[in-house]
Amino acid sequence: MNNMSDLLLLPDLKTIEPPQENESDMMFKVEATFPPVRCPQCGFDRLYKHTSRKQLIMDLPIRLKRVGLQLNRRRYKCRECGTTFWERLISIDEKRSMTKRLIRSIEEQSLSKTFVDVAESVGVDEKTVRNIFKDYVALKEREYQFETPKWLGIDEIHIIKKPRLVLTNVERRTIYDIKPNRNKDTVIQRLSEIKDNTYIEYVTMDMWKPYKDAVNTVIPHAKVVVDKFHVVRMANQALDSVRKSLKANMTAKESRTLMRERYILLKRKHDLNERDSFLLDTWLSNLPELKEAYELKEEFYLIWDTDDLEQAKDRYRYWRQCCLSSNSKNAYKDLLRAVDNWQDEIFNYFDKRLTNAYTESINSIIRQVERMGRGYSFEALRAKIIFNEKLHKKRKPRFNSSAFSKAMLYDSFNSYQITDRDKTGNYGVDFSTLIKKLEKSNL
Q1: How many Å apart are CA 251 and CA 381, to the nearest integer?
Q2: Which of 301, 323, 157, 296 is nearest to 229 (CA)?
Q3: Which of 385, 421, 443 is nearest to 144 (CA)?
Q4: What phi, psi does 348 have (nearest 5°)?
Q5: How far apart are CA 123 and CA 134, in angstroms?
Q6: In 108-212, at which residue ranges do the beta strands (DSSP E only) sit?
Q7: What residue stretches are annotated with the Transposase IS204/IS1001/IS1096/IS1165 DDE domain (predicted)?
Q8: Which of 190, 183, 196, 144 is CA-nearest to residue 167?
Q9: What is the Cα 331 distance to its own chain's centre?
Q10: Strands 47-62, 65-78: parallel, antiparallel or unpaired by DSSP?
Q11: Spatial contact of 175 and 386, defined as CB atoms under 8 Å apart
Q12: Is-contact 52 73, C-beta < 8 A?
């Protein structure tokens, strides 16, 4: 019997019969190794066996076979106070009727497998697996409280074919949280859950009104900054629309060539090499409408090259006049309307020159997550990303040289403690670490 008990490695349970097994399952008959000594109510040791019952407890698989424990559970009665109670077993989770180690295994497996696969492998219902995972995520939500960003980024990330809300720490280049959708109510709810949200000074975002409304509702003191990359990208889109409109008057060969060389138009002029500059001049000299649209694009980019807010506004006013009097004004109408509607938030950029500079990181994460995400639920993917401690960027404790020196000098090192102000901080999921893990498929 001892060998069979060793096979289970559960110190508070012992096997009372040889195990039964078939091709996929094993069943052990077990009972408590040690009976209770004292009454949990009054503490006296005058106990006797009252009744018993059989209880099925699921345990970790052995040799890839599902394991069930048929527990002969005994009930005791106290001769002193009359209290009746079932024997308590530290290895059993009473709520789930399974061993605690099986629950830990289900929690871990749920981060890398579908709920159906986990349920099938351990011999429990899929709903049970889903509920265990839900409880696990709730525990992790309380356990991991990332430091509130001073500069909060609001963006979106496409996971499992849907846009999801992603909150970032712009300063630390980390993911603060991911939520299942980007609806206004979802954003409001999540911002409201940040206890010290008064610490947030700036919020960067694209021109999505629900984001702005949510920020103004929950943290009205924070300055909204429209990410400049969303703005200048519209200038490129306007220029590209002009290029497409010119195809009707081109030969098929010219159209294909311009399509192939469109990157030259979208690049900044000062970034072109000698060959590309020559090609650009050739196209612009032969296509006056394209030249006009291209010059508007370059003039718009110049707005963001200045370090001075007032100069930037002057350049925008000049650009706006040029645009309205040009033949390309229809191509740029969406950009004009966007800047007119979001002017304050767009020019808030010049306060700190904040951008969602992690946009390319987000795109890389999207590609990798979509590749690995087949068969996963959103909740599982989110947990794999947010609660993986290996991905977290942490602040080391600040060194308090004065307190440390005194502790060393006066032999009080054992009483030397790090103050709350000096303790480690957790900024969230580091972009670069997450991307490396995803690329290696070992998240």
Answers
A1: 49
A2: 301
A3: 385
A4: -65, -15
A5: 19
A6: 151-159, 162-169, 174-179, 202-205
A7: 152-385
A8: 190
A9: 37
A10: antiparallel
A11: yes
A12: yes
What does the pLDDT average to over 309-338?
A: 96
Q: What is the pLDDT of residues 408-420, one digit of tens each?
A: 555 554 554 544 4
Strands (E), 228-372: none
Contact 190, 167 (CB under 8 A): yes
Q: Are 156 and 166 in contact (CB under 8 A)?
A: yes
Sort 164 into a burial class: Cβ within 10 Å, 0-12 / 13-18 / 19+. Answer: buried
Residue with tokens 């909150």: 167
- Do 326 and 295 form a contact (C-beta atoms < 8 A)? no
Cα separation of 41 and 129, whole Å? Answer: 34
pLDDT tens per residue, range 247-295:
888 888 888 888 888 899 999 999 999 999 999 999 999 999 999 999 9
Helix (H) or strand (E) holding 429: strand 425-430
Stated as kind and residue range, the H or E segment containing 409 is helix 401-409
Q: What are phi and psi of 47, to 5 degrees?
A: -120, 155
Task: Enter the tokens of residue 117.
Answer: 């696969």
HEC profile for 108-123? HHCCCCCHHHHHHHHC
Residue 166: its pLDDT value, please?
92
Residue with the two structure tokens 């929690």: 107
CA 299 – CA 315 distance, rounded (Å): 8
Contact assessment for residue 403 and residue 431, using Cβ atoms and an 8 Å cutoff: no
Torsion of CA 246, 251, 253, 259, to 10 degrees: 10
Handedness of CA 249, 252, 255, 261 (dihedral sign): negative
First-to-final CA distance of the chain: 41
Nearest to 170 by CA among 364, 309, 362: 362
